């Protein structure tokens, strides 16, 4: 059953993918940058992600709801960095 399907008692409207697409458009409009450029500068580069690809729709705009592609290694980067930070924090607390 799709989100917003009238048969489930909810009003028709965009599902979760539509909300994510809207957030992507608002981010691009608010920053003045394409989603890929903003994502690289503020998210992926600081996390150490080396490669990513955002597929685009027919309109040529990146699809924030389902278009992000990461390698397994790059997908693990935020998890590894979080583990490193937690380890460093525990070391400081024990010193």
Topology of helices and strands:
Elements: H1 16-31, H2 35-47, E1 52-54, E2 68-70, H3 72-94
Antiparallel strand pairs: 1-2
Quick description:
With 95 residues, this protein is mainly alpha-helical. The chain is built from 3 helices and 2 strands; from the N terminus they run ααββα.
* Percent range for β-strand residues: 5-15%
Question: Strand order, biggest sheet?
Answer: 1-2
Number of DSSP helices?
Answer: 3
Helix content: 40-55%
Sketch the major β-sheet: 2 strands, antiparallel
List key phrases describing it:
6% strand; 3 helices; two-stranded antiparallel ribbon; 95 residues
How would you explain this protein's 3D organization?
There is one protein chain. By secondary structure, the chain is mainly alpha-helical. Strands 1-2 form a two-stranded antiparallel ribbon. The N and C termini lie far apart (54 Å).
């Amino acid at each position: 059953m799709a989100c917003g399907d009238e048969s489930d008692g909810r009003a028709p409207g965009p599902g979760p993918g539509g909300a994510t697409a809207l957030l992507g458009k608002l981010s691009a409009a608010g920053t003045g940058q394409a989603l890929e450029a903003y994502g690289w500068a503020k998210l992926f580069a600081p996390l150490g992600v080396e490669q990513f690809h955002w597929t685009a729709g027919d309109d040529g705009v990146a699809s924030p709801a389902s278009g992000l592609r990461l390698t397994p290694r790059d997908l693990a980067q935020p998890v590894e960095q979080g583990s490193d930070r937690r380890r460093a924090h525990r070391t400081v607390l024990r010193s």
